[in-house]
Every structure is written in structure tokens, then in C-alpha cells.
Amino acid sequence: MRPITAIGFDADDTLWQNEQYYRLTEAHFQTLLGDFAEGWHISERLLEAEKRNLAQYGFGIKGFTLSMIETAIEITEGKVPVNTISEILDIGRDLLRHPVETLPHVEETLAALNGEYLLVLITKGDLFDQERKLAQSGLGDYFDAIEIVSDKNATTYRRIFSKLADGPERAMMVGNSLKSDIVPAIAAGSYAVFVPHQLTWVLEHVEKPEAAPRFRQIQNLGDLQQVLTEITDAGTSAAIHRPPAGKSNRRDGR
User: Fold this and answer.
1) How far lies 168's CA from each of 46, 74, 189, in Å?
2) What is the pLDDT along the chain (254 residues), one digit of tens a residue?
């Protein structure tokens, strides 16, 4: 029996580029408010607004845009020009229209795993934006199920992998965010494969769970099949050496 039957994939910055567009938009935002504050201070205040607003707006571009407007009002002490607010809305809309650029080895890996494992896309953020990016990526047909959630935690992974697959213990989550994709998947009992991206939002940074036996790290998705092979081989070896039912390898026989 294979130890893994289902694989969950994060979307943004795991399957396609995403954070780089936020960075470009933030740089534009700094320029718009350049007469009122230094760029580093603008970014600092924007991050504070994003943190405050996550509970109300959730993850995604619309919440980011509202946080930019709130930050502009705060930094200018309510004196932000109307045309600046209009430009902030424009760069938010541009962010919603950014092109979808898939990352290296993504499609070839999904094509190889399709049919061998149950593949689930598990992503958080704005529903319409995530659906748009998936459609433009051309990757949708590789997945058996799509789950767009408000947040990712251990409960999320237990629910999804119990509903769609053979439970979290026989599932793997693959993603670039330690906080959203890796740590909670391991807490749910799943395997988790960390695929670092050069740009990761600061609020997604936590320590790597390197001591966790189900944690793996790879350079890119092209290395995922090797990890799956190693886990399967290890599971097969353990099954071969497992004592027969009713027997014990304890000296006292209990």
C-alpha cells in the first residue's frame, strides 16, 4: 500500500509567479506617496495595515488595495488627493490583471503525477482572482479537485484530505509558504514539501520544521517525483520488515 495517495499543491509562487507583482505595485504606491514619507516608512505602515485588515478582508488583491488606501489616508493625515486615491485603485485593478507566468518544471511534474495520485489545488485568496489565474495558467485539467479557502491551517488540511482522499496521513502538501503550506499540513498529520521561492511575503515567514519526520525540502517541482519515490520505497521497506500480526519483537513477548 502506497504511503501517499493524494497531493495538495499551493498555487501562488508554487505553480506561478505572484509576489513579484505585489512588490512592483508596492513600489508604485511608494512613488505615489513620495511627497509625504520615505519609501521604507510607507511600506512599514502598509504592512501594519495589512496585518490589521486580514481578519476583515482576508488574503488577496482586494484587501491589499483597501490597505493601500487606508495607509495613504493615515500617512497624509487625511489630506491624500482624490486623484491619488484614484491611482491607487488603478494599480489595484492592474494587479488583478497581471499575466500568469508558470514556474519551472510545474507542468511536466503535474502531467507525470496526474492519474498516479489524486491531485488537489489548495489555495487561499480572492475567489475570482484565483479562478482567473488557474484558467489562464492552463493547469486546471491536471487537478482532480480545486479548493479555494479563506485561510490554511491544520483543520483545513484535515477537512480537505479526509473529504477528498484517504485522510491527511496519506496525503502530501507542496508549497512555498512555511506558515500556510508546510507547518499546518504537518500538524494535520500529512507529509509536507517546501519549495522555496525567492520572494515570499514577510507574514508567511516561520521557522522550518526540520525535525519533523514528514518534512522535506526541494529546489523546484522537478525534484518532487524523487521525493515521492523515496517515501514510497521507505514505506515498502518498512512493510517488508514489519512483524506478522499477532507476533511481537519485544523480548517479553507482550
Assistant:
1) 36, 44, 6
2) 789 999 999 999 999 999 999 999 999 999 999 999 999 999 999 999 999 998 888 888 899 999 999 999 999 999 999 999 999 999 999 998 899 999 999 999 999 999 999 999 999 988 889 999 999 999 999 999 999 998 899 999 999 999 999 999 999 999 999 999 999 999 999 999 999 998 776 767 788 898 999 999 999 999 999 999 999 988 655 554 455 544 433 333 33
* Pairing between β-strand 171-175 and β-strand 145-149 as defined by DSSP bridges: unpaired
Cell numbers for 139, please give them.
Answer: 493547469
How many Cβ atoms are within 10 Å of 49's Cβ, its own excluded?
A: 21
253 within some domain: no
Distance CA(226)–CA(217), nearest Å, equals 12
User: 64 exposed, middle or buried (CB, 10 Å; 0-12, 13-18, 19+)?
Assistant: buried
Burial of 153: CB neighbours in 10 Å, binned 0-12, 13-18, 19+: middle
Question: What CATH number is given to the structural domain containing 13?
Answer: 3.40.50.1000
Q: Is residue 252 included in any domain, yes or no?
A: no
Same domain, residue pair 48 and 131: no
